[in-house]
Design brief:
251 residues; alpha/beta; 2-enoyl-CoA Hydratase, Chain A, domain 1; 6-stranded mixed sheet; 3-stranded mixed sheet; 11 helices; globular
Length: 251
């Protein structure tokens, strides 16, 4: 289980997240992503490609870790870790390209939506099953991918939306066969990396500066409701059922 960085062409940082079996990340995993993304830009990468190994891009937080930890330490850790990872991707001084395959649910949407460019394989889909887990979150990020009323429909129902459908909304740049995803992401990364890095960094800061919503503050607001549900005992009921039925293996 790891978050590993490979430097391609001397200027493209390819970060691979690999936590078998489904990339449901423990607390440490979220912080590792934050450090990898921040470190890549600090070390001079011109572009970051964020990808994953295994069956799917991301299955959210590791609910088993949360239920096996006494008190609220894992809950607080997961919330802080997700916040740190999403923030690192959004505030990375260079463009971040998300290469998404298979499933991307829950917290994975925060990583994808805060990226600058999204490429996906033709088997990719996104979903926000938080309500079924007694939690809330990433509404901020889902709203960066689809229009307002579709956000609410997907959020309340937990239904999936495919990469092809997201491409119709303009949030996925390109959908390719799964075997071509990595090369497609590198093609876009190389196109950006070939440009003046001073201008690209200025462009990233400029585009973040004109965003209509402060994504960090908005997501933190959402997290407050998750804490309320946990304090009320609602979340534990749903997470216990989730662990007991092994739903995390059916992503």
């Amino acid at each position: 289980m790891s978050v590993a960085t490979e430097l391609v062409d001397g200027r493209i940082a390819v970060i691979t997240v690999d936590y078998a079996p489904v990339n449901a990340l423990p607390v440490a995993g979220w912080f590792a992503i934050a450090e990898a993304v921040t470190g890549a830009a600090r070390d001079g990468a011109r572009v970051v490609v964020l990808r994953a190994g295994g069956r799917g891009f991301n299955a959210g937080v590791d609910i088993k870790e949360m239920q096996q930890t006494e008190g609220f330490a894992a809950l607080v850790g997961a919330n802080r870790g997700c916040y740190a990872a999403f923030k690192a991707v959004y505030e990375c001084p260079v463009p971040v390209i998300a290469a998404v395959h298979g499933f991307c649910v829950g917290g994975g949407i925060g990583l994808v939506a805060n990226s600058d460019i999204v490429l996906a394989s033709d088997d990719a889909y996104l979903a926000v099953p938080e309500i079924d887990r007694g939690a809330l979150g990433v509404g901020t990020h889902l709203a960066r991918l689809v229009p307002h009323h579709l956000v609410r429909a997907l959020y309340y129902t937990g239904r999936r939306i495919t990469a092809a459908e997201l491409a119709q909304h303009g949030s996925v740049f390109e959908v390719v066969p799964r075997g071509e995803l990595d090369s497609a992401a590198l093609t876009v990364a190389r196109e950006i990396a070939a440009k003046d890095p001073r201008v690209i960094r200025a462009a990233k800061e400029s585009l973040n500066g004109i965003d209509p919503i402060d994504v960090n503050r908005s997501y933190r607001f959402e997290q407050g409701f998750t804490f309320e549900l946990n304090l009320a005992g609602v979340s534990d009921d749903h997470r216990d059922e989730f662990v007991a039925t092994g739903k995390n293996l059916q992503v």
